[in-house]
């Protein structure tokens, strides 16, 4: 049976044929991945692509990093999951995280970022005895009900409750306040009206689930000031920014220290492990400490192989010029893309930071709010990225999604990307982009 038939077989046993709602991409319904290596992946037709999607960002070192893989193999050869007690490697990883991330005094391991943010909100409500949480339009914090709303919303849903799933209780949705990112005035007004009932503010310090929207000067400090004044918990969701932008996360760059931090993705170069850490008094309320009231559990938490992957990844990030390399390539890509779009006379805003880049098809300055992103020409955005695939360059063809550089990418890859970008842009202009943009976003609203 041919490999191409796998996608058809998948439909009969897996809903939609994929194991995540963001993996069945229009135009890529037949995509079957057969191999990854360094900066590339290969599909079932034997085509190899330079990969800038990078699984939404985890493989900062590149696919199949030999040092991380060797650490996993070594751990698996002598220790397996026990589900009782603790291992030396878990302690050492927790010590690493506490040493690297400014806000972390104590830490607990989870398997996914969604679990980490779930626990962050739970412990915040328990510690404060309050009901409300604040999130921001365009931020994504995982699949759980309190934050499964207002990510990539249609224009008519901005400013309204916009759940990304059905099946969420209305009273849960009503307990989340959605504010515009980078709007300090809206934050102050929300605290003036609801401060005594706000348990937590959770924020991506850089909005990466809609590409790359950087915080304006002073915005994150306003969050710190208002939560401190009201006795609420400030949570930085650094599942994306942590380790990719700096070993200490974005908080080490901006100088604002939250009460709790969640990390994942680049922590282990693609192996499934995440963490929640922060103030000792908050972390000590979890039931991992005997008799404490906030339940915390997970069979796979601290799995020895995953811990080994994280420790090996962090060791490499500390000892090799990973950030210098990916930052330099990221800057070359962003400046190169600006030149490509300028030469073609196509309105575009090339955004990003460090190893992250995204080209929005819109004029004007870099976006500061989700509303700014509504100007992005989704048809051209998708048409351009689909055209890139014909040149064996892969940037995920979903609206507003960011792209990533890894340690395995080289200057030659950048030259190849910019050459392909010129050709893909011409092709997208000639075709007028993608005619049908239905399902172009996998984080749109589920109307109530």
UniProtKB/TrEMBL annotation:
Keywords: Pyridoxal phosphate. The keyword Lipid biosynthesis does not apply. InterPro entries: Aminotrans_3, Aminotrans_3_PPA_site, PyrdxlP-dep_Trfase, PyrdxlP-dep_Trfase_major, PyrdxlP-dep_Trfase_small. Gene3D superfamilies: Aspartate Aminotransferase, domain 1, Type I PLP-dependent aspartate aminotransferase-like (Major domain). Its cofactor is pyridoxal 5'-phosphate. One of its GO terms (molecular function) is transaminase activity. SUPFAM superfamilies: PLP-dependent transferases. It comes from the Bacteria. Belongs to the class-III pyridoxal-phosphate-dependent aminotransferase family. This is Glutamate-1-semialdehyde 2,1-aminomutase. It comes from Dactylosporangium sucinum. The gene is hemL.
């Amino acid at each position: 049976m041919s490999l191409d038939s796998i996608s058809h077989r998948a439909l009969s046993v897996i809903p939609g044929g994929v194991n995540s709602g963001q993996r069945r991409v229009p135009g890529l319904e037949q995509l079957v991945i057969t191999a990854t290596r360094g900066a590339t992946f290969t599909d079932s037709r034997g085509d190899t692509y330079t990969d800038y999607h990078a699984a939404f960002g985890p493989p900062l070192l590149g696919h199949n990093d030999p040092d991380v893989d060797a650490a996993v193999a070594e751990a698996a050869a002598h220790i397996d999951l026990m589900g009782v007690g603790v291992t030396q490697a878990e302690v050492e990883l927790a010590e690493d995280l506490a040493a690297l991330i400014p806000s972390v005094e104590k830490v607990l391991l989870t398997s996914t970022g969604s679990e980490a943010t779930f626990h962050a909100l739970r412990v915040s409500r328990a510690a404060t005895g309050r009901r409300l949480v604040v999130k921001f339009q365009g931020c994504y914090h995982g699949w759980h009900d309190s934050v499964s709303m207002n990510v990539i919303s249609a224009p008519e849903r901005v400013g309204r409750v916009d759940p990304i799933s059905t099946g969420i209780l209305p009273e849960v949705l009503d307990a989340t306040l959605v504010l515009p990112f980078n709007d300090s005035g809206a934050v102050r007004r929300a605290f003036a009206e609801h401060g005594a009932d706000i348990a937590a503010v959770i924020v991506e310090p850089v909005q990466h689930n809609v590409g790359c929207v950087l915080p304006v000067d002073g915005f994150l400090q306003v969050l710190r000031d208002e939560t401190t004044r009201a006795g609420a918990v400030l949570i930085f969701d650094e599942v994306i920014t942590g380790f990719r932008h700096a070993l200490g996360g974005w908080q080490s760059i901006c100088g604002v220290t939250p009460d709790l931090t969640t990390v994942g993705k680049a922590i282990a170069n693609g192996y499934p492990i995440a963490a929640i850490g922060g103030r000792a008094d908050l972390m000590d309320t979890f039931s991992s400490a005997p008799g404490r009231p906030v339940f915390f559990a997970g069979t796979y938490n601290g799995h020895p192989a995953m811990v080994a992957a994280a420790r090996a990844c962090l060791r490499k990030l500390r000892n090799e010029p990973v950030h210098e390399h990916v930052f330099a390539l990221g800057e070359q890509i962003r400046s190169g893309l600006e030149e490509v779009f300028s030469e073609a006379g196509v309105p575009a805003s090339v955004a990003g930071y460090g190893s992250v880049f995204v080209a929005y098809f819109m004029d004007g300055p870099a976006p500061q709010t989700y509303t700014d992103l509504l100007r992005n020409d989704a048809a051209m955005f998708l048409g351009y990225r689909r055209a890139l695939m014909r040149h064996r360059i892969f940037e995920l063809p979903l609206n507003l999604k960011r792209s990533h550089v890894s340690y395995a990418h080289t200057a030659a890859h950048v030259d190849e990307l910019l050459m392909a970008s010129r050709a893909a842009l011409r092709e997208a202009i000639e075709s007028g982009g993608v005619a049908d943009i239905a399902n172009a976003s996998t984080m749109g609203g589920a109307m109530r």
